Backbone:
């Protein structure tokens, strides 16, 4: 992605001008130790649709984030907002150090396409100041706001449950759909 931006915008050193702030896998499985029925147990924790939410001070949080807690990226949808959160101690007790990493769907891909047939999603996004690049504009319906829960409600549940706290709300500037 950085090489593509560098090529299009004539950037000579993308590593310097576009540094990686944080990188996380979409699906991950790691061996971790948790207390299960009062016994320290090594588990293989598979996070699909989830990400780590370790609290501040946890030794497995990258050093640069250890004082604030594991970054938890919770994307919303392409037309509203996304959130950066930080893991809290409740995640270790309630979810084996895990948090969702997305709003979650309310419509499947095909249902969204049917529901939004004939709607110009790209024009709606452009009207909000969001640039769109899509191989097939009709495929945008499957990622539309109507297809997802409101992520603001989702992150407030995370925060109220002590799993992660909201650090920043972001708004989309561009959408790339392959």
Residues:
């Amino acid at each position: 992605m950085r090489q593509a931006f560098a090529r299009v915008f004539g950037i000579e050193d993308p590593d310097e001008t576009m540094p990686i702030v944080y990188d996380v896998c979409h699906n991950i499985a790691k061996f971790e130790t948790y207390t299960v029925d009062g016994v320290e147990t090594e588990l293989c924790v598979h996070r699909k649709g989830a990400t780590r939410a370790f609290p501040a001070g946890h030794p497995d949080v990258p050093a640069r984030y250890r004082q604030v807690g594991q970054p938890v990226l919770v994307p919303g949808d392409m037309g509203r907002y996304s959130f950066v959160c930080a893991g809290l101690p409740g995640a270790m007790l309630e979810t084996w150090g895990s948090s969702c990493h997305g709003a979650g769907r309310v419509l499947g891909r095909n249902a969204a396409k049917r529901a939004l047939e004939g709607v110009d999603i790209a024009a709606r996004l452009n009207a909000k100041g969001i640039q769109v690049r899509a191989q097939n504009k009709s495929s945008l319906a499957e990622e539309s706001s109507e297809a997802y829960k409101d992520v603001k409600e989702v992150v407030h549940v995370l925060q109220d449950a002590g799993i992660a706290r909201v650090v920043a709300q972001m708004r989309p500037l561009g959408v790339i759909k392959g």
User: Anything to note?
Assistant: Strands lie at 27-36, 39-48, 50-52, 71-74, 82-87, 98-100, 131-134, 164-170, 174-177. The chain has six helices and nine strands.
